[in-house]
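Subject — a protein and its fold

Tokens — whole-number codes for backbone shape
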Amino acid sequence: MCTGRAARAVVGAGRGVGRARIRPAWRRAGQIMFWAALVGVLTGFFGVGGGFAVVPALTLALGFGMREAVGTSLLVIVVNSAVGLLARLGTHPDVDWVLVGAFMAASIAAGQVGARISARARPEALSLAFGLLLAGVAVATAVQVVSQLT
């Protein structure tokens, strides 16, 4: 159940086939631009994006369901990646294309497996799993930083 700002973003929750309808984007353009800019700053400053920035912004701030947020996040990643690749073509001649191809193939295959598992999972379970993943990454990062300081 959405609360706070997310609840105000959802219109018609409980109607239809169990899906909440999100207000049209043009009606909340300022809010979307704020969160998109925040994601951009996080991406540029920390090198994070996708699930670590876009999904929380879409679910917590804009009221998206987990599945819709993940799908939207993946599309954002594709567009950002394509633009980044085009901007850097020819600037790094020492790219290990075999490694890139292997990583890409493994990511595509694993993504298909993950999509099938996700389709069978409850949205609440997906949100919990995502939260635990973020918490685990935060703890691992903190441990790594603290060990470097000592």
